[in-house]
Design goal:
Order of helices and strands: HHHHHHEEEEEEEHEEHHHH
Distance between the termini: 23 Å
Radius of gyration: 20 Å
Largest sheet: 7 strands, mixed
Strand content: 15-25%
CATH topology of the largest domain: Butyryl-CoA Dehydrogenase, subunit A, domain 3
Shape: globular
Number of strands: 9
Number of domains: 3
Length: 371
């Protein structure tokens, strides 16, 4: 595995971190969150146009930078630390990677260029009532309708599902499961924002009533394709979780240096030292897991799937524990609305449940590891 980032990757990380520090500070995150906005238009335009981050994992043929899981992971790690309010994860990590892996030239030519230049937002809708991404639990159906398809069903917990310009919906066709592209304003499509724990990452419910759609990746084995995409998404989300956990550690250490009790900084107390040391250990273990997963997937290594599931499973727990310890170390102020600590705990728990119950991911990990 790679020991760390290259010089070019370090520069990418520095640029993204500097940009987010200037354009997406805590005050801006809170402004967008409390206003119910999905993004700041100027920041999105700069992120897409000036930095080219929306096209980082899009093939050059379609206007992107042609990079992969490694570079996307670096960007998401920084965004996770900043709790960016923008449809980046849904558009680039979910829909963008799904389209790029589809092998469907028509679909890629039609939509990837819009994702690359930031003019199109998109998302992937799989889960329904159970919250699981298991295809066996998908009840939505698709029937041939003229030269297209008509999709019926309800999708829940869809990231940015209420605002995305394009929905990639998983439904069962007569020949098996498939992925169907539906424009957000298509007749027969009803979308609402759900009340959710994480106020910085909105979730939507999408109800489809014979909505006209275009099938994507019809020539591929959908189950195998979506399994491949899920691995890419798990690695991307693990990178974001790592960024959040690392920020919780930084916040805790900085506070422990300046907060005094009994005439001395609380960081000098053994209990606080233990908490920070344990957080550091988990963050660094998570970093090793994430970096190996992204390298394994980028190199199409045999253990890529196992590495992706391991990274996500580990980082889910590490981020949640780091967020809880951050609140604990901050004491009374950590429990208040005005402090950012609770925002990280909300993101941590939401991410941990994004693909269904954590026990399912652990069971899949055990199966892949042959346990």
């Amino acid at each position: 595995m790679s020991a760390g980032d290259s010089t070019e990757h370090d520069e990418l990380r520095h640029v993204v971190r500097e940009f987010l520090g200037e354009r997406s500070p805590s005050s801006e995150v809170r402004r967008l969150m409390e206003a119910g906005e999905s993004r700041d238009e100027l920041v999105w335009a700069l992120l897409a146009g000036q930095l080219g981050l929306t096209g980082i994992a899009v093939p050059e043929k379609y206007g992107g930078a042609g990079y992969g899981p490694v570079e996307l992971g670096i960007v998401l790690e920084e965004m996770g630390g900043a709790l960016v309010v923008a449809p980046y994860f849904a558009t680039v990590a979910l829909a963008g990677q799904a389209l790029a892996a589809s092998g469907d030239e028509d679909a890629m030519a039609r939509w990837l260029s819009g994702i690359a230049d930031g003019s199109l937002t998109a998302t992937l809708a799989v889960a329904e009532e159970s919250g699981s991404w298991d295809l066996a639990e998908v009840a939505a159906t698709a029937e041939p309708a003229g030269d297209g398809w008509a999709v019926t069903g309800t999708k829940l917990f869809v990231i940015d599902g209420h605002t995305a310009d394009l929905l990639l919906v998983v439904a069962h066709a007569p020949d098996g499961p498939g992925v169907f592209a539906i424009e957000g304003d298509t007749a027969g499509t009803e979308r609402v924002r759900l009340d959710s724990l994480d106020l910085t990452r909105p979730l939507g419910a999408v109800s489809l009533h014979g909505a006209r759609a275009v099938r994507v990746g019809a020539g591929r084995d959908t189950a195998a394709w979506l399994s491949e995409v899920r691995d890419l998404i798990l690695a991307a989300l693990a990178a974001e979780q790592l960024g959040g956990a690392a920020r919780c550690l930084d916040m805790s250490v900085e506070y422990a240096k300046v907060r005094e009790q009994f005439g001395r900084p609380i960081g000098s107390f053994q209990a606080i030292k233990h908490k920070c040391a344990n957080m550091l250990l988990e963050v660094e273990c998570g970093r090793s897991a994430v970096y190996h997963a992204r390298e394994a997937l980028a190199g199409a290594q045999p253990d890529g799937r196992l590495a992706a599931v391991l990274a996500y499973t580990y980082c889910s727990g590490a981020f949640t524990r780091a967020a809880k310890e951050c609140i604990q170390i901050h004491g009374g102020i950590g429990y208040t609305w005005e402090h950012d600590a609770h925002l990280y705990l909300r993101r941590a728990k939401s991410s941990e449940l994004l693909f269904g119950q954590p026990a399912r991911q652990r069971a899949r990990l055990a199966e892949l590891a042959g346990i």
